[in-house]
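Dear colleague,

Thank you for sharing your sequence with our group. We've completed the structure prediction you requested, and as agreed, I am returning the results in plain text so they can be pasted directly into your records. Please verify that the sequence below matches your submission; if there's any discrepancy, let me know and we will rerun it promptly.
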Amino acid sequence: MPGHFEPLPGGGAAVALDDVEISIIRSLAVQLLELIGPGPGEDAPDDPLAELFAEGPSEPPSDPVLRRLFPDAYGDPVDVPSSPEQAEEQREYSSEFRRFTENDLRTGKRETALAVIRSLDALSPAGDGGAVLKLTHEESRQWLGALNDLRLAIGSRLDVVDEEDTDLLYRLPDEDPRKPMVMAYLWLGGLQETLVSTLMP
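Please find the predicted structure tokens below.
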């Protein structure tokens, strides 16, 4: 179980984490929450009706990490050869789609990050340090979403676009300042992969 998730009888998953690993995952989840920002109703008085009809942004985020977490639904027009008219039409479709979906996407990502933080905060320390994290099937799905978001965020900072970029990360010299971030990226990938396997029938 150390370093990877294993299935639990009856569903769910478990992984043994030491104190440093718990601290790293919690810190990354908190940073993700701060990056995503508060929900549309968190800055204003509770008004369910107003929140229901609240519109999200129509333009992509300027931060490259947020652009990776909330990409255009119809792709980036600069990446697709087309006429100026087609590119403008694509931008309009993406803008409209973003306006009505991004708030919900942000809420979902915020909830999965919070689920990770809460489950880590609820851990009972083991005698030799660290703890065994046990997740239900639903909690496993939340963790999977959060791990994916964390890897997308870190991958964006590392300029990881495809598998070839990931392969290059393995060959970075130890003195490279990106090395700690790379190690976190690869470790989270291992956790994500083993958690996926526990959810398979």
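Summary note from our side: Helices lie at 19-36, 48-52, 64-69, 84-121, 137-157, 163-169, 179-199.

Kind regards,
the structure core
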